[in-house]
Amino acid sequence: MHPYAIINFHELTPAALCDVITSKFHQPIEHTAEEIMAWFNLERQDDPSAPATADLQQLLFTKMQTEFTQLMRKETSIIFPVIRNAAIHNKGQKSLQPAVYDSIQQSFQKIILLLQKLRQVTGNYLLQGHWSAAYKICISDMYSLEQLLQQWIYVEQNILYPAVLPANTIVIRQEEIINTVSID
């Protein structure tokens, strides 16, 4: 069981959630991603047992890593300080503009799409007996990273951001507009 599994995120204030997200999600995600990239950058070329899709895996992973790294930096340097300051100065008033949340949602959607594609090209992270031990660890780390990313996104989408968006904010995603049916 992961150490953060016993945290009741619903009991935390938005400011406390920012701290927990940074320590329990951002840091482990970045660390795991670095380990995965180390295999791609250092061991991939010397590993004849890696499948032909390893190059595509690296491409997708790099794109996903860029996306979540940018979002984490945005959160830690801009969004989380705003949330913390609002907790101190505004005494519980909602502190995040819907446009900021829309931008975050777009990043989450990109990350989720890249996770799906990565899962496809890795064969659902199913390990093969003929792979090297290092590549098996890399694939296992990708699976662990997927779990961390999904939990991070879930906590933010369902607990943190709803707590800091102004009341009565209607958040409509682009895919909801496209999929609407006319009454005509």
Helix content percent band: 55-70%
Strand content: under 5%
Put simply, the count of helices is: 5
| Alpha-carbon distance between the two ends | 52 Å
Q: State mean pLDDT (0 to 100 scale).
A: 86
Secondary-structure element order, as H and E?
HHHHH
Backbone shape: elongated
Structural class: mainly alpha
Q: Give the total of beta strands.
A: 0
Q: Profile the largest sheet.
A: none
Question: Low-confidence parts, pLDDT < 50 over ≥5 residues?
Answer: 176-184
CA-atom Rg in angstroms: 19 Å
What's the helix and strand layout?
Elements: H1 14-43, H2 54-89, H3 98-121, H4 133-164, H5 174-178
Helix pairs in contact: 1-2, 1-4, 2-3, 3-4
Keywords:
184 residues; mainly alpha; 5 helices; 69% helix; elongated
What does this structure look like?
Helices cover 69% and strands 0% of the residues. The chain is elongated, with a radius of gyration of 19 Å. The termini are far apart. Residues 176-184 have low confidence and may be disordered. It has 184 residues and is mainly alpha-helical. It has helices at residues 14-43, 54-89, 98-121, 133-164, 174-178. It contains 5 helices and no strands. α1 runs antiparallel to α2 (54-89), α2 (54-89) runs antiparallel to α3 and α3 (98-121) runs antiparallel to α4.
What is shown here, in short?
With 184 residues, the chain is mainly alpha-helical.
